[in-house]
Amino acid sequence: MNSDDPAVCCPPADDRPDLRPVEGDEADHELAALAKAVGHPARVQILRLLSRRASCVCGEIVDVLPLAQSTVSQHLKVLKDAGLVRGEIDGPRTCYCLDPRTMRRFKALLGGL
Amino acid sequence: MNSDDPAVCCPPADDRPDLRPVEGDEADHELAALAKAVGHPARVQILRLLSRRASCVCGEIVDVLPLAQSTVSQHLKVLKDAGLVRGEIDGPRTCYCLDPRTMRRFKALLGGL
DNA sequence: CGAGTTCATCGTGAAATGACGATAAAGCCT
DNA sequence: AGGCTTTATCGTCATTTCACGATGAACTCG
Q: Which residue intervals define the domain HTH arsR-type in the entry (chains A, B) (predicted)?
């Protein structure tokens, strides 16, 4: 097997179109949930960090943010539950990256109003 | 004076460019605050309502949403404090409308990541 | 003036959020 | 195996949010 993947956690990009509507009750709740997840400065910082480094970071986030490790982990969970971020276990650590599909969806929903 | 303005509350559109950066600590907090304001289904519904009707609504929002009047007023205050919505007193009622400038800013900030 | 609207604000209680330290789980290295 | 690192989860506490009814302020109209 090719054991020389340094940080293979981010999916290889998904360009399939998203056919879900950007209006209606469903879309409203979806948008609210995504916005809520982003509605905290620390989480915005995490997202920006992940968008900068194409490569996925893990515990470096803890070093950058002025927060306790458990707090950062909580924020990562919020982002992961919202689908904005993916986490892949890589040995003893976890590798995080943006989910570009959900990011696009968020922008589309916001654009819908 | 021209007293025949039916609902003159929305500003006449502002096309001036927004020169503020879309990155950095300031932008992070700005984005978080905007997202937080949008992070509730009722508030998304209000925004959508206002984006539909070019004309500004006021207490019609209360009729549409399944919430008490005071609750709707609270949500409107959140949106207003975030700058996403403008309210103009028009006689005994208040006329609300989107602030397209802030909406654009929100989309620009989100686009920045 | 006085009654009736319309909306904002206050006070309150239940629930969610944000932060932390402590602890547990899972993997690496010698 | 044993120790070390890394991360997730738990329990807790303080704060914020959400929803409501009640009250108050401002305006219109008879």
A: 23-113
